[in-house]
Design brief:
Blueprint: H1 7-44, E1 53-54, E2 74-79, E3 87-89, E4 95-96, H2 101-112, E5 123-125, H3 128-139, E6 152-154, H4 155-163, H5 168-179, H6 182-195, E7 214-215, H7 217-229, H8 231-237, E8 241-244, E9 248-251, E10 262-269, E11 274-284, E12 287-298, H9 301-315, E13 319-325, E14 330-335, E15 341-346, E16 350-355, E17 361-366, E18 377-385, E19 388-396, H10 405-410, H11 412-424
Antiparallel strand pairs: 1-14, 2-3, 2-12, 4-7, 5-6, 8-9, 10-11, 11-12, 13-16, 14-15, 15-19, 17-18, 18-19
Helix pairs in contact: 2-5, 2-6, 3-5, 4-5, 4-8, 5-6
Length: 425
Amino acid sequence: MTTTPDPAERKRVYRRRRIAVFGTLGVVLALVVGGGVYTANALGAAVPAASPVVEQPEPLAAPAQALDLPGFGGYAVGAVGFDGLLAAGEPDRPMATASITKVITALTILQDHPIPAGEGGPDIEYTEADIDIYWDMIAQNGSVAPVEAGSTLSLKESLEAMLLPSGNNYAISLANWAYGSEAGLVTAATTWLADHGLANTRIADSSGLSMDNISTPADLVQLGELALAEPTLAEIVSTKSVDIPELGKLDNSNKLLGTHGVDGIKTGTTDDAANLLFSADYAVGEQTVTVVGVLLGAENHAVLREAVATLLDSVAPGFHEVAPLEAGQELASYETPWGDTAKARAADGASLVVWSDTPVEVEVHAKPVTVAAEGADVGTAVVRSGDREITVPLVLDAEIDDPGTWWRLANPDGLAQSTAQSGSE
């Protein structure tokens, strides 16, 4: 038996089918349109940065160096390029400097009359007035160097006569030549001392004969470093003897010269004490360390030399080379959410010469990385000891590549987080 469909029921079925078809089509269109927007956003979004996992090296420090210190006087020992004093006894005690004063005289004159490298400087004519100065110093039991009326010496030769045998007469003659009088030299030297921060040093004459020439061990270490920085003066004080035709052979009064590493600087003698401002060079690894020190107030020069030699022999082994970084050393690592990995390595090695138990530290500064080529600069490692430091670049040992289309489409949360972070920066 055939049943004739109810027209009203047929209408309702049609209506349901139409809603279903167009509803499905709407969903499809929404997915297509919405998916296109999502795909575009995902492919154009920034990827999250990989944060470094830093491996901070431990500080390095050697045991403290044992020193054989003088049991008398005032003393101080430093080293060129090193902070502070390595050893000291009464470093701020004012004491008579005696002929160490001649170093101040020489530096003051050379500031106003510099001598070009390899030259002797201006010529100086010596007269009967200089002969009178010579005999006056003899009468005062001062040290002298020979002088001849009518002779002409270069400034360098004159400084040699003042510094090597410690000729008081040449200190006075040079003051007269350069400044018209000893008083003129004292004025110029006082200004020089102030300009160089030697606040505890006083100069009363050009030779050091007066007991009013005073300084402290700490100041004298600075003076020694300034002397070594002046090429002409550094050359003279390291010379054992010179032959000057008009004067003959002049010997250096520093009898430690050439022993225990000593290569300068100046003796000083009063009626009561023997003094020495000294320098010494030591090879440490591929570098040379220059020690500068002073000992004031020894009973005599034999006692002085023994004390300085013993002190230096204990100081020298305290310098050592530390290499806290090697080229290629791993200092940080990276791992991205999409699986790329790389190491941040030191581009170069680094080493420092340090004194005694001074610590050497390495401070690693690695930056977050998103996409980077192999060899990219990703930070620095700072090697530090005291106020000395070396900065070494950090470089990647592998490429960190873009994650690609599939990872981007499959990781909306990671991209959204990266975009939020980027927007907040």
